[in-house]
Amino acid sequence: MPENILIVSNWKMNLNLDNATKLLDNLKKIKLGSKSKVLNIVCPQFLLIPYISNLLSSTDIILGGQDCHFEDFGSFTGDSSIQLLKHYKCEYVILGHSERRSQYGETNLMIKKKCEIARKNKIKPIVCVGESIKLRKKGKHIDFIINQLDECIEKNLENIIVAYEPIWSIGSGLIPSYDEILEVKTKSMNFLKERKGIKNVKILYGGSVNSQNFNDIIQMSGVDGALIGSASINIKEITKIILNVDFN
Ligand code: PGA
Predict the structure, then answer these.
(1) CA distances from 95 to 75, 174, 236 (A)
(2) Helix, strand, or coil (residue 133)
(3) Is 97 a catalytic residue?
(4) To test the ligand 1 pocket, which listed residue (127, 209, 217) has its Cβ within 8 A of the most ligand atoms?
């Protein structure tokens, strides 16, 4: 079992002030106690962050962003900077989500630069990788993922968090088999440790995670946690996931 289980809620462009408050009121009631090895990380859209940051002070819920720009500041209309994430006490930032890659043309090089600026500001990047259904069917998924890792992540880092999110699994209700997740986890881990010289690697799984499959994914695939989309904005689902984490 990993030393910590990361439960990363990717709220995407969902939730308004009212339903975000309601969700957090429920999350705050969860007493982690002996489950203190659970890191409960919520990633709201940018405009919610100042408000949520305030609601989270003196709770054990951790704040994260869904993206950042790779420059400190400048003429980047519509973007938001890592310095503001830091100001509002974000500790993590999701980078290179497949929705950003496909809808906003984010490249591996851009993601690498975003990682660098996040690390410089002491915010932990969660780098998303994952294949399309076409690549999976052709059996080319491992090569594709290793190339993403190679191009997005610098050498010789102390630590890195990677989220394996097969594109075909996001929001579809489909998940790879536990062995398939384990294969990606093991090969990514080996590549990052042996070829990139990274000491501490954590691998999360993301894509159609819910309260029914969460524990099996963690146990059978040995991942360090999950990046959760739709189930993370469903109060019953996310509460069940956090309360029922099985450490055996
Ligand atoms: P999902 O989304 O849990 O709704 O499949 C996961 C994600 O996009 O990070």
Answers:
(1) 21, 23, 27
(2) helix
(3) yes
(4) 209
Give residue-wise pLDDT tens across range 110-169: 999 999 999 999 999 999 999 999 999 999 999 999 999 999 999 999 999 999 999 999
Identify the DSSP state of 195: I
- Check if 175 has its Cβ closer than 6 Å to any atom of ligand 1: no
Q: Within 13 Å and on the Cβ side, how many CA atoms surround 139?
A: 0
Q: Which domains does the chain have, with CATH numbers?
A: 5-14+64-243 (3.20.20.70)
Two tokens at 151?
Answer: 């191009």
44 with 52: CB under 8 angstroms? yes
Name residue 209's amino acid: V
Catalytic, out of 69, 97, 99, 237: 97
**230 Cα: distance to centroid of ligand 1 (angstroms):** 6
Q: Which residues pair with 65 in a beta bridge?
A: 93
Q: Give the list of residues 6+ apart from residue 23 with CB closer than 8 angstroms, or none.
A: 15, 233, 235, 238
The contacts of residue 152 (CB under 8 Å, 6+ apart) are: 95, 96, 108, 111, 112, 115, 127, 129
